[in-house]
Amino acid sequence: MKKTILTLTMLIIATIVLAQTPRKMSYQAVIRDTDNKLIINKSIGMRISILQGSATGTEIFKELYNPNPHSNANGLVTIEIGGGVAVTGNFETIDWTNGLYFIKTEIDPLGGTNYTISGTSQLLSVPFAIHSQTAEKITGTLAETDPVFKSSAANSIKQSDILNWNNKLGSSDEADPFFTKSVAHSITGIDTAYWNKKLNAETAFNASVARKITANDTLRWSKKLDSFTEADPFFTNSVAHAITGIDTAYWNKKLNAETAFNASVARKITADDTLRWSKKLDSFTETDPLFINSVAHAISAGDTTRWNRKEADPVFAISPANSIKQSDILNWNNKLGSSDETDPFFTKSVAHSITGIDTANWNKKETDPVFSTSVAHAISAVDTTRWNRKEADPVFAISPANSIKQSDILNWNNKLGSSDET
Questions:
Q1: Count of CB atoms situated within 10 Å of the CB of 27
Q2: In contact, 400 and 325? CB cutoff 8 Å
């Protein structure tokens, strides 16, 4: 039977490096038979052991390979020591600085586990390991030649800076009065952690005044005036002059749909109205002859304070006066003259003959036999004192007159004359 000759060629490369300690080593072996012929393209059974101290020293690691490695067309078998199936020890925990180490190779050329061929060789330093040892012997400082690094802020970082990186002074140790009073003083570690995580499209920010703040603005941030006297007469006399800090804090918190406001008279106030807000008349002399001669001209402030009292007089409740509507009141002074009346019913009625003299003498004693026998003749002075008592009639309750408010009454005599309206 021919014996197989094992020719070992070792190429060791540290694929993971910690100091000079390899985590895996590439290992190659060329296999020949007794006739010095290569055993090519065969499945080769292999077992690798690491021995410490000598070629027959203590076995501290052993592994085999599954699947088997194959020889190539040149009879070369390549494996990674530390990448097989460990039988003994842990390749990553070997202390390579602790003495000499040897590699024992066992071969079964038939691809089994009958390892009939073996060889042992010392594990020597390879160029990568030798170079890593020279790095341990460097003393002194290195001269930096990179112009980009030299001109960067990183070039000024010292060893002491690195040691104190996480030991910054607490806020209570800050002695710079400018920094203490600045906005930067309130920046926390959490703020810096999220510094670059702003939204790509932040609608609220883009629509705000802050969106227009420039770098020049920030340079002047702490140079604001401590006090300021406004000298612009237009601003001083404008509505804006009365706006306070409290107003600005609630600037954008208006109700989207404020029912009370939308239903009020203020809802109809326009920009033109506000421009004339302070130009109201302090006093007014009425010159309208129609108003002067009307019943409305005699209405006093005392009358308006009783405007909304409810009528409780049953006589009034069933009288024609109870049916007077708001539209009737608005047209009170605009009735047609007697010469313009075309209503045949009015023309033929008793009312058609009532004159101005009759109305002036309305409360004078009546001698008309028709009136004496009418319902009106039974109205007494006592009845008139109850004229404004609480109204219980459902017709009045649903009429426009029922919606007149106290504020309407108070402002009844303060309207502008037609000549002042712009």
A1: 24
A2: yes
